[in-house]
Amino acid sequence: MDSFSELIAKRRSMRKFTDEELTQEQVVSLMKAALMAPTSKRSNAWQFVVVDDRDLLKKLSLCKEQSAQFIADAALAIVVAADPLASDVWIEDAAIASIYIQLQAEDLGLGSCWVQVRERFTASGIPSNDYVHEVLDMPLQLQVLSIIAVGHKGMERKPFDESHLQWEKIHLNKYGGK
């Protein structure tokens, strides 16, 4: 990448992956990015579960009624969780770490997609958070925000088209700007 602007234009959600595995260096780079994410009062309330086991990836792909099936085909899933007792802004901190992972994936030429877990449910009505806890044997105090699926891109997507920017959503000095 030549610039941050190019990176954010190129990063698009990827739901199709090749069968190629990630290298250890790629996984380490992704996790370094997560660990460098800023947190409120440097609480570092987040925790990350890195999953590359095919059976576990398939189970995680069932964490939601819809929109998570592609996890089964990803080379890696990174479960982003945090301890609400360690920080009252754990959701924001975990969200920042999640997007850092996605930006690092794009910088490495990999594809990624965010799977929302918090406040979602499985097809049978079980809270997605509880389901992920059961699959990965996670401590109860951790709350799962997201799962970031990562892998080699299985399709090409065009960069974000700046003609679709919604400039009307920007307000100067006050809402409405008048």
Largest sheet: 4 strands, antiparallel
> SS-based structural class?
alpha+beta
**First-last Cα distance:** 39 Å
Question: Given the structure, what is the number of helices?
Answer: 5
Shape: globular
Physical arrangement of strands within the biggest beta sheet? 1-2-4-3
Q: Gyration radius, to the nearest Å?
A: 17 Å
Mean pLDDT: 96
DSSP strand (E) fraction?
A: 15-25%
User: How do the helices and strands follow one another from N- to C-terminus?
Assistant: HHEHEHEHE
Count of beta strands: 4
**Low-confidence sequence ranges:** none
Helix content: 25-40%
Question: What is this entry, summarized?
Answer:
The chain is α+β, with helices and mostly antiparallel strands and 178 residues long.
Protein described:
It is a single chain. By secondary structure, the chain is of the alpha+beta class. The protein is globular and about 55 Å long. It contains five helices and four strands. The protein has a four-stranded antiparallel β-sheet with strand order 1-2-4-3, sandwiched between helices.
Looking at this protein, list some descriptive labels.
single chain; 178 residues; alpha+beta; 4-stranded antiparallel beta sheet; 5 helices; 4 strands; 17% strand
Write the layout of secondary structure elements.
Elements: H1 4-10, H2 24-36, E1 46-51, H3 54-60, E2 76-82, H4 90-107, E3 110-116, H5 128-136, E4 143-152
Antiparallel strand pairs: 1-2, 2-4, 3-4
Helix pairs in contact: 2-4
